[in-house]
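Hey,

Quick one before I head out. I ran the complex with NAP overnight. Inputs first:
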Amino acid sequence: MSLLSLALPAIRVYWIGFRVVLHQLLRRLLRPGWPLKPVFPLQNGNVAIVTGGTRGIGYHTVKYLARLGMHVIIAGNKEKEGQETVMKIKEEALNAKVEFLYCDLASMKSIHQFVQAFKAKNYSLHVLINNAAVMLVPERKTEDGFEEHFGINYMGHFLLTNLLLETLKQSGTHSHNARIVTLSSATHYVAELRLNDLQSSCLYSPHGAYAQSKLALVLSAYRLQHLLTAEGSHVTVNVVDPGVVNTDLYQNVCWAAKMVKWMTGWLLLKSPEEGASTSIYAAVSPELEGIGACYLCNEQRTKSADVSYDEELQKRLWTESCRLVGIPDTAP
Ligand SMILES: NC(=O)c1ccc[n+]([C@@H]2O[C@H](COP(=O)([O-])OP(=O)(O)OC[C@H]3O[C@@H](n4cnc5c(N)ncnc54)[C@H](OP(=O)(O)O)[C@@H]3O)[C@@H](O)[C@H]2O)c1
């Protein structure tokens, strides 16, 4: 293992991050008043699940959706923080329908229990936002033996989405499709998907592993949309890239990057509230009714990495993921 093969993923990730930050700064300078606050239709009676809704982008997504009248379930792995978040949102938005349900995405058992508890409530499900993530964690394994980025960011959401698919299908209609929104990141542009080493066990780079998990999410979102369209389901799947946002996601970056973030974050980075805007757009915008397989950034459709459109790779990843979580591969 050469030093270069370890350093390269980090260089690529910081390079793409730098480009996004520069783009955000230019946009801010050239378009004062951006981002605009769009007005979305009320969502009374609709139900959403947001993973990792206790802080950062997820928290602001939950808060906004609840303000629109949606009943939002926060799926999170810290009971105390979850209940505190619920109380905070209810204090800020009277009549907000928000609840917390425990779900540790690092544990397949916990995901199954979460889905069981959710289904026992007999709610419909109109929006699922796969938001939670970890970034640049040291080499560690989840309860099920997956590398942590791959296990939490990708496999956890893969299993959760598949277990909730029937409920989403039953809740979507021709004129009001149910929506799956998956958060990826610009790092997917510089990622490599190693199908023969998805757990990064041959060469562990935290940057490479995070980026790979974010590319896997894009590939599998496109594959799922393909499968849903083929069977005529009223469910859409879109991918969101929130930009570079000032949140705790950066707690594991190197000290120099932390320093730069601390000094310039207010100018260069989006606030968590701004960061949530594309997730909210993907979840409720009438413009996206019936439209799936889009990569959304700054509330606009854009192109994801060329490799993410590789249908053979999408298929192979999907099949392997089904095998890893022990569900049938429903490919036609
Ligand atoms: N911030 C950015 O610049 C940026 C850029 C591109 C993409 N994104 C993406 O945007 C999404 C939100 O990121 P963020 O910046 O808001 O991050 P954040 O502030 O760190 O929030 C991450 C959320 O994920 C939850 N989480 C972590 N591990 C979990 C687990 N095992 N089970 C359930 N929940 C878990 C966290 O809960 P705990 O508090 O309990 O750990 C937290 O609520 C992520 O998918 C991220 O990859 C962010």
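Residues 40-244+272-325 form a domain with the Rossmann fold fold (CATH 3.40.50.720).

Talk tomorrow,
K.
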